[in-house]
Design a protein that fits this description.
12 strands
């Protein structure tokens, strides 16, 4: 997504998405699965455990933060990072993670766009191995109720029962 005022977020932020990793990343830091990436903020799945991680540049204290909970391979999970300008929280499948990070803004802003599913900056290219669906990027903090509504209102990602599957089944008779 090209840079614009709408994606140059530095006061508060919500990043959320449905993710389905084919496997969990393993090995070193070069193997992270990137979900969101802008040179001012990003969210990834960490190697060795499927924990969610985020980084906000120049928010105080600056740093890389990792959730306590994680996602599983070959399973759809809804993940989110919500930052209200004072603290950041992880959400996995609509439930608030136990990790809370006190972090004050504003963060850094820059003229780069946002990438979904990969990055090629820093040490190495890091690309998501699997599927990402229904991404949400907001310049305000969504509440836990808002996130649960996103999950509840999500479209079914299973092909079973869809027109193409039903027609194929009928046609094969």
């Amino acid at each position: 997504v090209a840079n614009s005022d709408e994606v140059d977020i530095d006061e508060s932020l919500t990043m959320a998405a449905w993710v389905y990793p084919n496997e969990l990343p393993a090995g070193g830091q070069e193997n992270k699965f990137t979900i969101f990436f802008k040179l001012t903020y990003y969210m990834q799945i960490e190697p060795n455990g499927g924990k969610i991680a985020y980084y906000f540049y120049e928010a105080a204290p600056e740093g890389y933060h990792i959730s306590d909970g994680g996602v599983k391979a070959k399973e759809w999970s809804h993940v989110a990072v919500v930052w209200d300008g004072k603290e950041a929280n992880f959400y996995i499948n609509g439930k608030k993670d136990t990790k809370v990070i006190a972090q004050k803004g504003p963060g850094k802003s820059n003229q780069n766009g946002v990438r979904f599913g990969g990055e090629d900056a820093g040490c190495c290219p890091r690309f998501f191995q699997g599927r990402i669906d229904e991404v949400v990027l907001a310049n305000y903090p969504l509440s836990e109720v808002d996130l649960q509504k996103l999950i509840k209102d999500a479209l079914d990602v299973s092909a079973t029962g869809k027109l193409a599957m039903t027609w194929g089944h009928i046609k094969s008779r």
